[in-house]
Amino acid sequence: MSPSSARLSxxxxxxxxxxxxxxGLFTLIAFNIGALTDLVLHPDIPYFDPEHMVVGGAxxxxxxxxxxxxxxxxxxxxKRSEALRQMALVADAAPSSITVHDFDGxxxxxxxxxxEMHGYSRTEFMALNLAQVDMPTTANLxxxxxxxxxxxxxxxxxxxxxxxxxxxxxxxxTITRTTWDGRDALLSTARxxxxxxxxxxxxxxxxxxxxxxxxxxxxxxxxxALDGKWLRVNQKLCDITGYCRDExxxxxxxxxxxxxxxxxxxEAVRQLVAGQIGDFTSEQRYLxxxxxxxxxxxxxxxxxxxxxxxDYLVAVTEDITEHKQAEAAQATLEAQLQQxxxxxxxxxxxxxxxxxxxxxxxx
Length: 363
Description:
Radius of gyration: 47 Å
Order of helices and strands: HEEEHEEHHHHHEEEHEEHHHHEEEH
Strand order of the largest sheet: 5-4-8-7-6
Largest sheet: 5 strands, antiparallel
């Protein structure tokens, strides 16, 4: 039989009926609990015979129960040891830093990734206190973290640690309460967010450059929805149209376009969205907020999302009113010059006719 079962048998049933019943109950209890070895239980033997593996009476029952208790205790210890061993293997192989420290900041445990991230050997790091690796800027937040921990049982935050070489190590930390060797402690899991911080900084720089370019451009720039609504406009476009940002962003380009130019503008956008053209430039008339008609040159292109679907338009607008006025003035001057030249030609012709007529009269 297996070590976790007991072979219980009655050998000499010479006791009284009541004794048999009581002994049977104890036997049933012992059988349900389980024993370490094969034993023969004899009701009339008041002692333990190890040579023949025979036990009897109350002594026998106590021996069985004691063996069962010892077996279960050893089994629980083996299970706990195995669980701890597996947890240690997981912690040692974890890609994140895992530490346990007491409420005074003394480290009680740290996995290999922690030493690697901070640049210390195991001996060096375990001799440190949390205050020695926490940067002053984040160490000042300890009170807030402790308050969150008491309220919710855990806290998540970002900190900056100092590496052995003096460089900064940004971390995203989750901390919970635990016990370590019978005393209260804190379990921390930390992830290195250096790359994320660098990506965020690059994104901020890119956004700042875009914002500066967008706002300081010498021409009006706008992001326009596919339905023509202004999504975002710069100050130059406001100057051109006479509207403030909020007013423009509540309107569409059709609201500003001269009625005679709306149809051509809508058709150009349709061709752009359909992919028939890559961009377009057109000269059209806008109506300023004060009702004055101005001429603008609009160049628009389409921005598509990753899947290729149209997203919005980028429109660059230049006020060409003065240019148009100069063209009109030039055209007027040219017309006047042509008229003057015609009149001069007529005058010369008339003068020639008169001269010839006078010659004829004098002949």
